[in-house]
Each structure stands twice: as structure tokens, then as C-alpha cells.
Specification:
By secondary structure, the chain is of the alpha+beta class. The protein has 2 domains: 2-261, Glycoside hydrolase, family 65, N-terminal domain (Beta-galactosidase, Chain A, domain 5, Distorted Sandwich), CATH 2.70.98.40; 277-348. It contains 5 helices and 19 strands. It has helices at residues 2-22, 208-213, 277-284, 296-319, 326-348, and strands at 24-29, 32-37, 43-47, 52-53, 64-69, 72-75, 83-88, 92-98, 102-111, 121-130, 136-144, 155-157, 162-163, 167-169, 176-179, 187-190, 202-207, 236-247, 252-261. The chain has a 9-stranded antiparallel sheet with strand order 7-8-9-10-19-16-15-12-13, with no helix packed on it. A 6-stranded antiparallel sheet has the order 6-5-11-18-17-14. A 4-stranded antiparallel sheet has the order 1-2-3-4. β15 and β16 (187-190) form a beta hairpin. The model is unreliable at 6-21 and 274-289 (pLDDT under 50).
Length: 349
């Protein structure tokens, strides 16, 4: 991605820095952080353990969802076709796109792998609702501008194969694919290995520019690598395509995607990153203290209760410190950090 990265770095760095810093919502849990642009819904997903972004982060708009309606397609967050609303939830972040015909909600939910107690993955639930009075054929495409694999083998599949050229999977869908950088583990995206994951109808590996310019009509050439001279070099991307289906008025279509830090166990659907009563402290008293409609006295009482529970939990673990895991220590540190943030907010009022 030499040319594209250099271009964006030189021409849009100041603009991106301003937009991300002023118009973004950032949340973190466990080993992951999400930074979502509130103007266009673009997202930066980072492994906080290695400080590496899963997607190309210099311009996060290069990864996106595309909605196709009959023969017309839209990139969600680009242009003025949809109104956008970004909000924090108890389990992550929700992005809503709406126009007179469709309401599309993309819900980013922190999840855990099977033998882990703190967040190391994301469940992305996409709900498409036809709010119009007409039927239409509707499909969804998720373009991921991968980044980590461009430092080595671009992609690895579940059976151990590497992908270094353009390729399309349909019926022979691999259970998952991996984009791995210099620091292990890398990004792992599930495709059909877990019950409840929506299997794409097509999984495409190709050069980003070739994919972006031919989103819904792309034809892979197995003899091509991920270069497109003179425009881009070593620039790989993945498109997960969910085929068109007829949607009647008021009908909803749900698509579930799982991705996260590479691991050997896979992820647990709908299992939030909860470790013990300690991690529930943030959930039990998670309302925003800066909210002017919120009763500050009630919030302070809730946070006082959270502190007492936290101290009790710490005292319990001090009796057997050898049983304290790194994941539990991480959660304790997150709770302390959040309580300190709230203390500062109280003092400023």
C-alpha cells in the first residue's frame, strides 16, 4: 500500500486528525478499542495489546459497508444518501443509517473468545429494515481494507493456506481468514465456523482499488497479485458479499459478522466481555454523569457502591493472589480508570 498510504498521509493527515479528534466516539474494553467517526460512521478497530489497527487507519473510510438496492448501490457514510447517528451502548457502539426507504443499524458488540474473560473480539450485527411501502432486492457488501497482512503473507486461511493472489470463494467457504502482521496475533474474521454467523455468498480477496471500483461486479483474476501499478502496490483488501434478497415493506434482514484478535478457540456469540461481578460495576453504574438530565446524587451513590464492591473484590483476590489472571487484572485496571474519570468529572461540576 505504498502509493495510497503516502498519498493519504501527505494530503489528508491534518483533515483526518481534526475529524477524528473532534467528531469521534471512542470506547474500549479488554484488548480492543473502537474509534467511530460520528459524521460518516467509519471505524478504527485497534488491538491495544500490540497497538496495531486491524484496518487501514490513516483513512478509515477505505473500509465500509455498501448497500445495493436493485441495480443501485450506496456506500454507507459517503455522501448525503443517509442520515447518520452514532451512540454508545452498554456493550459497545451503535451506528444508525436512515433515509426514507431504509433503516440500517450496525451494532458493534464487544465479545470474548471461548477461554478468555475480557474482550478480544467484536460481533457486528447489521440489521436492515425496509421502511418504505415498496419491495426491493437488497444486498450488503462489507469491504475491509486490510493492513496487517501487507507486512508479510497477505492472508491465511483456516486450513493453513496463504492467499497472495486474487481469489473468490463461494460454496467452498473457509471457516475463517486471518490477516497477520509482524506482531502476532493478527486479525481473524469468522465466515462459517460458528452457528449464528451469517455466511457470505461470496468472499473476495483482491487489490483494494480494483475492488473499490468494481464493488458489485468484481471478477477475480487468479493470476493477479495485490499490485495495481501505477496506482497502488501490495494493497490487499477483502469483500464479504451477502447476496441480494427480496425485502417486502417493513421486512427486516439481519447479518451477523464476527472478527477479533486471532486465537485458537473462536468466539462466543452474544457473550459480552464479562469476567465477574467486578466487570459488572461499569455496567451497573455506566450512565453518563455529564448527562444534564441525570440525577447526580443517584449517580454518585451508584459510583460509591461500585467503589465498595471493587474494594471487596480486591480484598478477596489478595487472599489468593496467585489465582489472579492477567485478564482479571486488566478488568480491575479498567474499572479503576473509569472511576477516576468520573471523580474528575464530579470535581469539575
Amino acid at each position: 500500500m505504498v502509493n495510497k498510504k503516502g498519498f493519504y498521509l501527505l494530503l489528508t493527515w491534518l483533515l483526518i486528525f481534526n475529524v477524528v479528534s473532534v467528531y469521534s466516539l471512542e470506547v474500549s474494553q479488554g484488548s480492543l478499542s473502537l474509534n467511530i467517526n460520528e459524521r460518516n460512521g467509519s471505524v478504527i478497530i485497534k488491538n491495544t495489546q500490540t497497538d496495531e489497527s486491524f484496518f487501514f487507519a490513516d483513512d478509515p473510510r477505505t473500509s465500509f459497508f455498501s448497500l445495493r438496492e436493485n441495480d443501485k448501490s450506496y456506500v454507507l457514510g459517503k455522501g448525503n444518501a443517509f442520515d447518520i447517528n452514532v451512540s454508545k451502548t452498554a456493550s459497545g457502539v451503535k451506528v444508525a443509517y436512515q433515509n426514507p426507504f431504509y433503516l440500517i443499524i450496525v451494532d458493534y458488540i464487544f465479545i470474548v473468545s471461548k477461554n478468555t474473560m475480557t474482550a478480544n473480539g467484536l460481533e457486528i450485527d447489521v440489521n436492515i429494515k425496509n421502511i418504505s411501502e415498496r419491495s426491493a432486492k437488497v444486498g450488503l457488501l462489507f469491504l475491509i481494507d486490510t493492513y496487517l497482512g501487507e507486512k508479510g503473507d497477505h492472508f491465511n486461511l483456516s486450513a493453513g493456506q496463504t492467499i497472495k493472489n486474487e481469489r473468490v470463494f463461494t460454496n467452498d467457504m473457509p471457516p475463517f481468514w486471518i490477516s497477520r502482521g509482524n506482531k502476532n496475533p493478527g486479525l481473524m474474521v469468522m465466515t462459517n465456523a460458528i452457528s449464528g454467523v451469517t455466511q457470505p455468498s461470496r468472499l473476495v480477496f483482491a487489490n483494494w482499488k480494483r475492488l473499490e471500483e468494481n464493488l458489485w461486479s468484481f471478477e477475480a483474476d487468479p493470476s493477479r497479485d495485490f499490485n495495481l501499478p501505477p496506482y497502488s502496490f501490495n494493497d490487499s483488501a477483502v469483500a464479504q458479499i451477502y447476496e441480494d434478497k427480496i425485502m417486502t415493506p417493513q421486512e427486516e434482514r439481519k447479518i451477523k459478522i464476527l472478527l477479533g484478535i486471532q486465537n485458537n478457540e473462536g468466539f462466543n456469540l452474544n457473550q459480552g466481555a464479562s469476567l465477574s461481578p467486578v466487570s459488572e460495576i461499569l455496567t451497573d453504574s455506566s450512565s453518563d454523569i455529564e448527562n444534564p438530565t441525570r440525577d447526580k446524587t443517584i449517580q454518585m451513590k451508584n459510583d460509591y457502591t461500585a467503589v465498595i464492591e471493587l474494594l471487596d473484590n480486591i480484598n478477596t483476590r489478595l487472599r489468593t493472589p496467585e489465582t489472579l489472571t492477567q485478564e482479571e487484572l486488566t478488568v480491575l485496571q479498567e474499572v479503576l480508570k473509569e472511576l477516576e474519570r468520573r471523580q474528575d468529572a464530579y470535581l469539575q461540576q
